[in-house]
Amino acid sequence: MALACTQDVILLLGDSLTQGNVERTGLAERLSCVYVRKMDVINRGLSGYQTDWAIPVFEQILAQQHAHRHAPKVQLLTLWFGANDAALPPSTQHVPIARFKSNLVHLVHMVRSPTSAYYSPGTRIVLITPPPVNTYQWTRERAFEETEKYAEAVREVGGQVGVPVADVWTQVWEGAGRDERGCARFLQDGLHLNAAGYEIVFDAVMKIIEATYPEMHYDALQTVFVPWSEVNVDDPRPSLVKRRAM
């Protein structure tokens, strides 16, 4: 049985930090709560993935979107990579920083470039930096200074392509008192965020929406289906036709 899609979407693309958003305290759960009945939040977090592997996956996601005339529109896209790209060689997850930046630009241009087969000018984009890694907790194939470089690379790409950046790295670092051991306050295992860490991410994304994409704020949207108090009780069906949230 195929279900008709009734709501436009917020699409989250990333690695395990995004995949972990399905947890009760994660970004996806928080966004789903505030955007309920207005936007669907689709989590495409892929644990262990880096940007080399994300590109062909994103191509398939966007191809499916374009193949169906009545597919929901992606109104907001978050791109959250760097934690795995920053893995130290010879890890198969490692992506050299120059190629990492090129990959991020490519992911943005897939949506933003008029020459792209997946061009979607109405899609708003947010880049998210990886958080610091706490190597006192996470001892495998990571270095604090290397992850910092990849966070800076995300900021540089954001400036280059004109996309706002949720600087999670800096906010976690400042919240930790600029002490690597202090990052344990926001990281459950040294690499992945806990509830306090995801709160930082959610707040950072919402601040960008408020400042840059205010039309996407949940308070600016209407519900796709009318509130129960607006249903025409004498002839309900016409009043129950879906509408655009924006």
TrEMBL record:
Coiled-coil residue windows: none
InterPro entries (alphabetical): Iah1-like, SGNH_hydro, SGNH_hydro_sf
Highest taxon in the source lineage: Eukaryota
Database matches in SUPFAM superfamilies: SGNH hydrolase (SSF52266)
Record's keyword annotation contains Hydrolase: yes
Stretches assigned to the SGNH hydrolase-type esterase domain: 12-200
Any Pfam family the entry gives: Lipase_GDSL_2
Keyword NADP appears in the UniProt entry: no
Keyword annotations from UniProtKB, A to Z: Hydrolase
Sample GO molecular function, one term: hydrolase activity
Name of protein: SGNH hydrolase-type esterase domain-containing protein
Source organism (scientific name): Boletus reticuloceps
Lineage: Eukaryota, Fungi, Dikarya, Basidiomycota, Agaricomycotina
